Amino acid sequence: MTELKNTQPLLELRSLEKHFDLDRGFLETIKFRGGKIVRESRQVHAVNDITLNVDRGEALCVVGESGCGKSTVARLIAGLLTPSSGEIHYDGVRIDNGSRSDIMSLRKKMQMIFQNPYASLNPRMTIQQALEEPVRYHNKSFSKGEVQDKVADVMRSVGVDPSWAKRYPHEFSGGQRQRIAIARALTVDPEFIIADEPISALDVSIQAQVLNLMLEAKNQRGLTYLFITHDLSVVQHFGTRVAVLYLGSVCELAETATLFENPKHPYTRALLSAVPQLKDDHPNHIRLKGEIPTPINLPQGCPFESRCAFANDRCKVEQPKPLLQTDGSIVACHAVEEDRLES
Amino acid sequence: MTLLSVRDLTVKFAMRDQNLTALNKISFDLAKGERLGIVGESGAGKSITGFSLMKLLSHPGFIDSGQILLEGEDLIELSDARMRAIRGNRMAMIFQDPMVTLNPVLTIGQQMVETLRAHRKLSESDAKQISIVKLREVYIPSPEERLDQYPHELSGGMRQRIVIAIALLLDPQLIIADEPTTALDVTIQADIMDLLLELCQSNKVGLILITHDLGVVSQMTERLLVMYAGKIIEAGRTREIINDPQHPYTQGLINALPQQTEPGRPLKQIPGNMPSLSAIPTGCPFNPRCEYALDHCRTTPPEIVRYGNVEVACHEVSRLNAERSEEQGA
Predict the structure, then answer these.
(1) Beta strands in chain A (DSSP E)
(2) Average pLDDT, 10 consecutive residues per value, chain A (343 residues)
(3) Test mutation, A205, A232, A308, chain B, max B CBs within 10 A
(4) What residue segments make up the domains of chain B, in order of their start?
(5) Is the pTM of this model over 0.90?
(6) Which residue of A has its CA nearest to B250?
(7) Which of A278, A282, A285 is most worth mutating to test chain B (most B CB atoms within 10 A of its CB)?
(8) Is the N or C terminus of chain B more exposed, i.e. has fewer CB atoms within 10 Å?
């Protein structure tokens, strides 16, 4: 049974890449360099060669700092962006080159929750209208009563009183709005949810409420999550596996417990040590040199080389490949490969 | 030596039909060189506290009553001109978003020189020299070149360092930092916090750190105020409050953090929301969300009183504490 489940991942990303053109028009590409007029177009390399699987029933967390490409990955999977190269397979079917109608029918299985519940709900639609729309679109055979029952059901399950359905989003608090956004994702009974920083805009006590709700939905409905976040304590709590992204590449991919017990990549180590701890009097965080380089002209070697304390000449010229470690984690680092890190 | 002493500070907002109370009789002291944290969720009044101390409240907010004593001098009584001489000079403020704090159409150098020359009689070149020294103190690489750059040419972490350098230009006695790292990434946040800590310690500068992040205050501050609906509900040494919180709200805040629960188990959530200023419950403001609330909690607001080593505003603190130690004993 378990083997059967493992043979077919729900979602597969194969060498996924996304570049954005900075200089779009012909005129923008014309530059004056060293006394000559040349044509040159710059690109932002947001996602570089990412290969990942998401298995059924797991909660894969993608962590990283701003600009590392985590939201771009989410949007590529949801079909809101088209990849520059690479493939995305959902349930064995390639989805990144489908037509609009293919994508629309996929949305019944795959839903997305966004960071800011103030922007993701239409201010001119009542909650009822906002929640009914996806149900009606994906279940054309439903009668009016069935649609309303479905909406009331889902509202109750996220702890929003169905009698509030006639209200507009501005009448709700941030936490309530995020519950409504989750309800909207759940109304079509999806199997896979992409959540892009769903609790970052909320207060601590409200974060716990929303996170509990998402855990409950996972357990009751057997949902699979791709959870994008920068908050490592949330990852530790929610994730079954973690992918750490840096400048558009996966630098470490591991089971959550393994990653927190024994982080291997120098960037993962620095990231974990930087989280302010409640009860630790003597923070002993690893200082990184400098800041994230721009993704416009990527370094040719390891993307982390400029800030890494273990970098050597090989790291400058050769990009490390993701390699499987003995404990099952996958790490892209020459220093780990050559065993140059003291653990 | 007390640097700042706030007594019964009450701040209101003048609305059309009523005055809303945003801060309700806040009192606290800050010693010279001491680091104080203020935590709470949105709407608790922590930012209003910071703005009030700098007298930066704008309409419809106003200071209704109370005292803000900076080395014995009441800031509330001061004229705008006198207050301008203190702001930036003896007390400085750092805000959340450095892109909003810095003027986008002036170079870093112009902004620093302007600040210096507004308070001190200095030549332009002397002011530049001081600016370069301060930029070096916050570890800005090649500060001479930065002076001619505009804020948009720098990264978020670099901008916040520059904001800190500007706050430190005139060697203030007190820095009020309102969520200084909330807009930044964790690795950059750790850097900025290290820097702030180092600068406060080496220059004996007092710090009021306003944040929602309990991890940050626990590493940065010596004393802590917890605010809820415009009141201080718990105050004391940071370590003491973090290790053994007395107020049910403080306990709830700490217990709600994911690291306090085994992975995958439901988090301990606080039910409900922070009340809005127009609908603060009678009695204890926390009572509708408090699982221990009794009848008198719903009618009589608790005063903040000394309990053990901390100060707590909760009617039932001794009963709850006794129950907890019994539970732990059993």
Answers:
(1) 11-21, 30-33, 36-39, 43-54, 59-63, 85-90, 93-94, 110-113, 192-196, 224-229, 241-246, 249-255, 323-324, 330-331
(2) 61 93 80 82 88 93 88 92 93 87 88 88 93 91 92 89 90 87 92 92 84 90 93 90 94 95 93 83 70 78 90 92 92 92 69
(3) A205
(4) 1-90+172-260+268-274, 107-169
(5) no
(6) A205
(7) A278
(8) C
